[in-house]
Design goal:
Radius of gyration: 23 Å
Distance between the termini: 52 Å
Strand content: 5-15%
Number of helices: 14
Structural class: mainly alpha
Strand order of the largest sheet: 1-2
Number of strands: 10
Shape: globular
Length: 441
C-alpha cells in the first residue's frame, strides 16, 4: 500500500466511523426534546421515560463522537499538512465556530443530564433545545468547510499561494447551502428511520405497548418531513454539481459520451476500458432534464476531460446509485406514513408499513456513507477542486500502514464499546407492557 493510499484509507475509515456519530448527534437530541415536550404537556410518564432513555443514548454517542472527531482533527494536520498549510487560514473560521458550537452543546448537555431534579421542567427543556440547536449548528459549520473544498472561493492565487483571503466568503461558498441542507436533512431522516425501525419491529411483537407507540410517533415526526424534503435537497445538490463539477456528475451517472438528451441511468456498472456502462436501465433525456431542467440539454461526458482528472468512475457511480436508491425508498415510506396520518390511520396498526420501517432501520446510515463516498471520491483527484491535488497534499512521512492498522483496531474497539453501552443503558431494561415507565428514573 502506498503512502497516499494509506493516508486516504485512514482518513476514509475515520470519516466513515465519525459520520455515524455526527448524524446521531444531530438527530438524537431532537428526539429527546420532543419527548420531553410531550411529557410537559401531558404529564404522561411514558414520555418522561422516553426522554430519559434517549438522553442517555445522546450522552454516550456524544462522548464517542467527541473522541472520533478529535482523531479527525489530528489526522488533518498529520496526514495532510500541505492542505492545512494552504487552506488553514481560509477555512479556519467555520472550524473555529464549530468549536464554539461544540462546547455550547457539551455545556448544555451536562446541564440537561444532571438537571432533572435541579431545574424547573421548562428550564430543563430549554437546556435540551440548546443541545439540539448547537449540535445541528456544529454539523453545519463542518459541512461549510467541506463545501469549500468542492467550491473554493474567498481568495486569489498568486504564484501558487492564496492571497486576499476573505474567510466569510470562503465559509459562505456557493456549495455551502445545498450541501449543509442535504446533510442536515439526512441526519434527521437517518436518525428518525433508525429509531422508528427499532420500535416498529418491537410493535410487531408487542402491538399494545404504549412505550413503543410513543417512540414510533416521535421518530416519524422528524423522519417523514426530512425524507420528503430530501428529494428537493437532492435535486438542488445535483444541479449544483452539474454546473460546477461536470466531471463528478459524469462519473456519478456513468456518462462517458457528451450528448444532448442524455439518459438517466438506473443501476449499471461503468467500464472505463470500453467507456460504457453495462446493464443499466436508461431513461432518455432524464439526466439532461434533472441537471439543467431541459430534456434536450447537452451534458458533458467523461470524454471531455483528461483521464488524469477522472475520479474512480465505478466507485462513484455505484455509491451514487446506493444513496439515491435508499433515499427514494425512505421517501416512499415517508409518503406512506403521511397518507396514514391524513387518513387518520394508526401507523402502529399497519403491519406491512411496520415491516417496511423495520427493514429500513439501517438504510439511512448506508445512504449517508454512500453519499460521502460520492462527495469525496467523486472530487478526486482534487483535495481542493481545481486548486490542489490530493497527491500534492499528503504527508511525506513514510510507513503510514502501521497507524492505519492501529486506528482500525481503535475504531473496532470503540464500536464494540458503544454497542455494549447502548444495549446496557437503553435496551437491556425494557419497559413493562403493563407499566411502560420505569419508576426508578
Amino acid at each position: 500500500m502506498t503512502d497516499l493510499l494509506a493516508a486516504r484509507g485512514q482518513m476514509a475509515m475515520s470519516l466513515a466511523f465519525h459520520i455515524i456519530f455526527a448524524v446521531l448527534g444531530i438527530g438524537m437530541p431532537a428526539l429527546m426534546v420532543l419527548a420531553e415536550r410531550q411529557w410537559i404537556r401531558t404529564r404522561d410518564p411514558v414520555w418522561l421515560d422516553l426522554a430519559k432513555r434517549w438522553s442517555k443514548g445522546t450522552a454516550i454517542l456524544f462522548a464517542v463522537g467527541a473522541v472520533s472527531g478529535t482523531v479527525l482533527s489530528f489526522e488533518l494536520g498529520l496526514l495532510w499538512p500541505r492542505f492545512m498549510e494552504y487552506a488553514g487560514a481560509i477555512i479556519g473560521m467555520p472550524f473555529s465556530l464549530e468549536g464554539f458550537a461544540f462546547f455550547t452543546e457539551a455545556i448544555f448537555l451536562g446541564v440537561y443530564l444532571y438537571g432533572w431534579t435541579r431545574l424547573s421542567a421548562r428550564a430543563h427543556w430549554w437546556a435540551g433545545v440548546a443541545v439540539a440547536v448547537s449540535g445541528t449548528i456544529s454539523g453545519i459549520f463542518v459541512v461549510f468547510a467541506n463545501a469549500w473544498m468542492n467550491a473554493p472561493t474567498g481568495f486569489r492565487v498568486v504564484d501558487g499561494a492564496a492571497v486576499e483571503i476573505d474567510p466569510i466568503a470562503a465559509m459562505l461558498n456557493p456549495a455551502a447551502f445545498s450541501q449543509s441542507l442535504h446533510m442536515t436533512l439526512a441526519a434527521f431522516a437517518t436518525t428518525g428511520f433508525a429509531v422508528a425501525g427499532i420500535h416498529a419491529w418491537m410493535l410487531r411483537k408487542e402491538a399494545t405497548s404504549a412505550f413503543h407507540r410513543a417512540a414510533l410517533r416521535v421518530a416519524l415526526a422528524i423522519a417523514v418531513p426530512a425524507a420528503l424534503l430530501q428529494l428537493v435537497s437532492g435535486d438542488l445538490s445535483a444541479k449544483f454539481v452539474a454546473r460546477t463539477q461536470p466531471v463528478k456528475l459524469a462519473a456519478m451517472e456513468g456518462h462517458f459520451e457528451t450528448a444532448a438528451r442524455a439518459p438517466l441511468r438506473l443501476g449499471g456498472l461503468p467500464d472505463e476500458a470500453t467507456r460504457t456502462t453495462r446493464w443499466s436501465v436508461d431513461i432518455p433525456g432524464g439526466l439532461s432534464f434533472l441537471a439543467f431542467g431541459d430534456p434536450d440539454a447537452e451534458v458533458k461526458g467523461l470524454e471531455n476531460f483528461p483521464e488524469s482528472d477522472w475520479p474512480p468512475v465505478a466507485v462513484t457511480h455505484l455509491a451514487f446509485q446506493v444513496m439515491v436508491g435508499l433515499g427514494t425508498l425512505m421517501a416512499l415510506a415517508a409518503a406512506w406514513v403521511a397518507v396514514c396520518w391524513v387518513r387518520k390511520r394508526e401507523v402502529a396498526e399497519t403491519r406491512p408499513l411496520l415491516g417496511l420501517l423495520a427493514l429500513l432501520t439501517p438504510a439511512g446510515f448506508v445512504a449517508v456513507e454512500a453519499g460521502w463516498v460520492v462527495t469525496e471520491v467523486g472530487r478526486q483527484p482534487w483535495i481542493i477542486q481545481g486548486v490542489m491535488r490530493t497527491a500534492d497534499a499528503v504527508t511525506p512521512m513514510p510507513g503510514l500502514v502501521v497507524p492505519f492498522a492501529a486506528f482500525t483496531l481503535l475504531y473496532l474497539f470503540l464500536g464494540v464499546i458503544v454497542a455494549w453501552l447502548l444495549w446496557a443503558q437503553i435496551v437491556k431494561t425494557r419497559p413493562d407492557p403493563a407499566h411502560p415507565i420505569r419508576r426508578d428514573v
